[in-house]
Every structure is written in structure tokens, then in C-alpha cells.
Specification:
alpha+beta; 30% helix
């Protein structure tokens, strides 16, 4: 456990996030390969009904899902089913972009495939059973056929690239994307679908996702989708999103508890992981360089950084109603997770503000 002063400073800082009206709730976990070193939870999963967030509360993780997609693709590479330096079109004949784009370039956001605003790519909870994601994205690809740059010319984040990785995974494995992740990542780690999966496991345990009622971000949403359909009433200065799913699970569909995401990250800290080889781990965390040999700061889905001289790999997930980050400190053999039920639209590197107390 951390020293009492360290824990107190963290708790005070995170408590202020709720008390200063920056989020309805926040949960934070800091850990090593086997143990939780510090855990914090505070605030409301449901403001109107006065339901506090607790360890069973689930949150949308959005783009954090991309790390699961990348690992899943590398699982196929481990078995020699694919080679990530092959063209995508070799395995996905209907691939709508240049035949020269490789799987690796999709993984490292260097393919040049565009990234139209994904905030409108959602559908309501009640529509999920009839929603056809392939039909939806076929139309998106038709409208966005032109690449923004040549393959590996530069880094340019693309959710569409990870939609295509999900389609490739399904084509090659013969499994639905969600089933592949469950069978090859979650089940071997003994993480149940009530803790981590692609559907809301229990509405009463799922945190409502909020946006400040009186904010530029909320006003902006009116230009992106029907707010009457997707945004609910004002709850003490916060407007909630009616429960919904993203249209593409492979770029942002995971939903779970902070503890479940911590269990996933702990696997990367173990000397003998059960869901990937050491070679795969090395590939995941090798930075990509452009054709001109410029570092991009991106590995295979993971982003590089450092906090007080401690290198880390990280990924953020943000969108309507939720924001989260996951992080691995390989040299310090530590990891962290933070989750909010408030809207976040960019990579905030919020964990820099919290984890620093452990690395002073």
C-alpha cells in the first residue's frame, strides 16, 4: 500500500474533481502485477437517483478497446495465420483503400485512412439487437474513400482503421469480433462478461454518462446528432446520454469496471503472461517510424510517454458521456486505470496528474 500521505494526496485531488463539478464520479486503480496498491472511488453513477459509484459500476471505455483489437490481431500473427506486414487486402478482399496499405499501418495509425467525426456513430440501447454495423460502415467508407496521406507517411489517428481491423479479424478467424476477444483475452484471464464485455451487463450497475448542461461541448452536439433522441434531462447541471452503444465494437465498444481493466493490464506486468508471448509484447510496444525515419510516438495501438523519467505506454478512451485512461509503466512494474462518467473528447493524459504522487 502507498504511504498514508501519498494516498491522502491522491484521494484529496480526485475528490476535488467531483466536488468542483468536473465529473459526477471518478474511479482510480494503481497496481503491480499481482496486487492493488491504491484504489479510489467517489461520486455518483446516477445523480438523479442518488446511486453512488462502487467497484461493480461499469463505464464505457471507448478507444481503450483498440488495445484489445491490436492484441487480438497479434494473436493471429502468433499462430502464423496472418503477417502484419502483409497488405490488408490479402486477407480482406473488400478492403476499400489502397492495396499497398498493410495491417501494421492500420495498427499504428499510419495508413492515411481518414477519421471522420465518430461522435455520431452511436445507436440507442433499444436499437442494438437490430443494428447492422457492416451496412452502416459500408456507407461511411463510400463517403470517405480518399486517403489523407500515403502509407506510413505520417501518424494520423483513424477509427476507421480499427473498424477494418475488426472486419479482418472476423474474416480470418471466422468468429464475431466480440466472441474472439472474449475467447482469447477475457476468458483466459477469468474476467466475466458482467465485469468486462461489449454490452451493458446490468443497467442498474452501469454509470450514466454525462455532459455539462451549460457547455460548449453540449451545444456542439446539436450539430452532430438529434439531441432529443440521445440526450436526457438536466440532473443538477449535468445532462445524461440515453444508454447507447458505439457502432463499431473494434474501435471503441468495451464496457467494464475499473478493476476488470486493471486485471487486463496486470497481465502485461507478469513475467509469464497467459494471453500472449514475449515476442508479441515486444511488438506491441515497439514505436513506429515513418518512411522518413521520424518517430511517431505510437506503437501497435499504444502511445508512448514518460512521467518524471518513468517511461510508460498508454491509451485513452473518450466520447459522449465517458472518459478513461489505462497505463503501463514497464520499468517501474506498475499500472493504472482511471474512469469518469463525464464526456471527454481528447487524450488528456490525466493520469500524469494522479500517478505523479507515486513517482515524486
Amino acid at each position: 500500500m502507498p504511504g498514508s500521505q501519498t494516498g491522502d494526496l491522491i484521494d484529496q485531488f480526485l475528490t476535488s474533481q467531483v466536488n468542483l463539478h468536473k465529473t459526477p464520479s471518478v474511479q482510480y486503480v494503481f497496481f503491480d502485477a499481482s496486487n492493488i496498491i491504491h484504489r479510489f472511488q467517489y461520486g455518483w453513477a446516477d445523480i438523479k437517483n442518488g446511486i453512488a459509484a462502487d467497484e461493480a459500476t461499469t463505464y464505457n471505455a471507448f478507444s481503450v478497446t483498440k488495445t484489445f483489437t491490436a492484441l487480438s490481431v497479434l494473436r493471429l500473427a502468433e499462430s502464423k495465420t496472418i503477417d502484419i506486414d502483409d497488405p490488408v487486402k490479402k486477407y480482406l478482399p473488400e478492403f476499400p483503400y489502397s492495396a499497398g496499405i498493410t495491417i501494421r499501418q492500420l495498427l499504428t495509425h499510419s495508413s492515411g485512412i481518414p477519421n471522420p467525426i465518430p461522435l455520431r456513430w452511436i445507436h440507442l440501447f433499444r436499437e442494438h439487437g437490430s443494428f447492422n454495423r457492416n451496412e452502416f460502415f459500408n456507407e461511411i467508407f463510400i463517403k470517405n474513400r480518399k486517403t489523407k496521406s500515403s502509407p506510413n507517411e505520417k501518424y494520423a489517428y483513424s477509427n476507421l482503421g480499427y473498424v477494418l481491423l475488426g472486419q479482418l479479424l472476423e474474416k480470418v478467424s471466422g468468429l464475431k469480433y466480440e466472441d474472439y476477444v472474449n475467447l482469447n483475452i477475457l476468458r483466459p484471464l477469468n474476467i466475466g462478461t458482467d465485469k468486462l464485455g461489449f454490452t451493458i451487463p446490468n443497467i442498474t450497475r452501469h454509470a450514466k454518462g454525462y455532459i455539462r448542461t451549460y457547455s460548449f461541448e453540449n451545444a456542439m452536439l446539436g450539430f452532430l446528432f438529434d439531441k432529443g433522441k440521445y440526450i436526457g434531462e438536466n440532473e443538477k447541471g449535468w445532462s445524461f446520454f440515453n444508454y447507447n452503444y458505439v457502432n463499431g465494437p473494434s474501435y471503441g465498444g468495451l464496457i467494464g469496471t475499473p478493476n476488470a481493466f486493471a486485471r487486463y493490464i496486470q497481465e502485461f506486468l507478469k513475467p509469464y503472461p497467459v494471453i500472449f508471448t514475449e515476442e508479441t509484447k515486444k511488438k506491441l510496444f515497439t514505436e513506429n517510424y515513418t518512411n522518413n525515419n521520424k518517430p511517431t510516438g505510437v506503437c501497435l495501438s499504444w502511445f508512448k510517454g514518460a512521467l518524471n523519467s518513468k517511461p510508460y505506454f498508454t491509451h485513452a478512451g473518450g466520447g459522449g458521456g465517458y472518459y478513461c485512461e489505462i497505463r503501463i509503466y514497464p520499468e517501474a512494474e506498475r499500472g493504472s486505470v482511471i474512469m469518469f462518467n463525464r464526456t471527454g473528447f481528447k487524450d488528456e493524459r490525466f493520469l500524469d496528474q494522479v500517478d505523479r504522487y507515486f513517482f515524486m
